[in-house]
Specification:
Strand order of the largest sheet: 4-3-5-6
Order of helices and strands: HHHEEHHHHHHHHHEHHHHHEHEEHHH
Number of strands: 6
Oligomer: single chain
């Protein structure tokens, strides 16, 4: 095998479920549970309805279920809608700069339904999806993509979805390699959405899942794609990155399971805002401060986060006065203010447009500033390492500094199983009946014993009043 796509395809096709360590399988179940919970709590947003309504208008073969609503559509369109739901409020897990939790579980369940795949095969495909997404991001240098205004999820995501579909469609390695070549035509997406807080940020996840599944289906039908898609002179890595390391795409396959490094979110906002919030919360607790004691809050952060969360290339307007929900989620000042005023609790409802102009929130937000720290840039983005150094100045002139490297949910400060379950229940409490919540938990935690996923997805339909 001369091309990286062929080596990766062999891994995707030939990994045996029995060879995957038990703790990796159990963690995959929890990642799936997390995706399902955040999808259900976020599925009713207007941008989700845009995709949902479009998918319904297309009709087609009833292969897979749209969560929350219950409609059955082609598997590619189910993945499109469900991935949009998962990433709807930026509450899913991510890794190495890719919104893995938004892409991988929706892709796996959609194809699993259409192919009647076993629970074991679903879990294996999820684990493979995380491996492919992460290795692609590391090899292409996802942090460098951010600095160039490209979103790694949009560039790398379709390859992960293609791997999942190729596995569950039982394609041979050569066909899977071709599906990677086709998926390269779906690679791309910029961070221009930050300028006006547009919905394409969320859509990047959905189109990656959709594109990857289409790629695998087309390869199955005989379409070819370049097997040099990763390392070729005009392949994805060289086209998008100035300092990629292509060989990292296939390192430690079968011995390193990247799903274990995923960063689970405690807050429904940009992950780069989490460490700053937890740093200030720690300063307040350790020094018995009150909100009214805070005069200024300054942060040092990775350079690529500055345009994301505090200063969009010289324009700070929407960061300090968010105009829509995405503005709020991407705004360090707003997220800090919400988190501090809520004693560290942040919910999807905190980004309701009616809250964005709250004078109390904006007053506290105005005290926040940040700068890039090139030393922090040297820390690799895998796992989702986005440390922050907070300096708080009080109204009486005292200064406190705190560094947080690993926010709650980072693999080095991980969620426990009970944290995953609590988050799922909180996300679905007002949407799913108690019976359906219990059935989802049972189906997910025992997925390796199930012959299929239909009983699971049926529990994801919103309970009617």
């Amino acid at each position: 095998m001369s091309f990286l796509a062929e080596k990766l395809a062999e891994y995707v096709s030939e990994l045996k479920y029995r060879d995957i360590p038990r703790h990796v399988i159990e963690h995959a179940k929890l990642c799936l549970l997390d995706a399902l919970g955040v999808a259900i709590t976020s599925a009713d947003k207007k941008w989700c309805h845009a995709v949902y309504n479009y998918v319904l208008q297309q009709g087609g073969t009833a292969q897979a279920t749209i969560w929350y609503h219950g409609d059955r559509v082609p598997d590619t369109n189910a993945a499109l809608a469900n991935a949009m739901f998962v990433h709807s409020m930026d509450y899913n897990d991510d890794l190495a700069g890719v919104q893995v939790g938004g892409i991988i579980p929706p892709s796996a369940l959609a194809i699993a339904e259409s192919q009647n795949a076993s629970g074991e095969e679903v879990l294996a495909s999820i684990i493979i999806g995380y491996d492919v997404a992460t290795r692609c991001a590391v090899a292409i240098n996802s942090q460098g993509l951010y600095m160039r205004g490209l979103q790694p999820t949009a560039v790398c995501g379709a390859f992960a979805a293609a791997a999942i579909a190729g596995r569950l469609l039982k394609l041979d390695p050569s066909t899977i390699a071709s599906s990677f070549g086709i998926a390269g035509s779906y690679a791309g997406g910029t961070t221009e959405f930050l300028k006006e807080g547009t919905d394409t940020k969320r859509f990047h996840v959905a189109k990656a899942a959709h594109g990857g599944l289409i790629s695998a289906h087309l390869a199955k039908q005989g379409m070819t794609g370049p097997k040099s898609i990763f390392e070729g002179e005009h392949g994805t890595f060289h086209a998008y990155s100035e300092n990629s390391q292509p060989d990292r795409l296939v390192e430690e396959l079968g011995s390193r399971y990247d799903i274990l490094d995923t960063s689970v979110k405690s807050y429904p906002f940009c992950d780069g805002n989490a460490a700053p919030l937890e740093a200030v919360l720690a300063i307040i607790k350790e020094n018995q401060l009150q909100i009214e004691d805070l005069h200024t809050l300054h942060f040092r952060m990775k350079s690529f986060l500055i345009p994301y969360v505090v200063d969009y290339h010289g324009d700070k307007t929407r960061k300090y006065n968010p105009q829509n929900e995405l503005d709020g989620q991407m705004s360090l000042p707003y997220c800090l203010a919400i988190g501090l005023l809520n004693n560290g609790k942040v919910r999807t409802t905190d980004f309701d447009p009616k809250r964005l102009s709250d004078p109390e929130i904006l007053k506290l937000a105005s005290k926040v500033s940040a700068e890039a720290d090139t030393e922090l840039d040297k820390i690799p983005l895998k796992p989702m390492s986005m440390p922050a150094i907070a300096t708080v100045t009080t109204t009486d002139g005292r200064n406190f500094e705190k560094r947080v490297d690993y926010q709650k949910g980072d693999p080095r400060n991980p969620f426990k199983k009970t944290d995953f379950v609590d988050k799922f229940k909180e996300c679905t409490d007002k949407i799913l009946s108690d019976e359906h919540q219990k059935e989802v938990l049972s189906n997910v935690l025992d997925l390796d014993k199930k012959e299929g996923v239909r009983s699971l997805v049926q529990c994801l339909i919103a309970s009617k009043p």
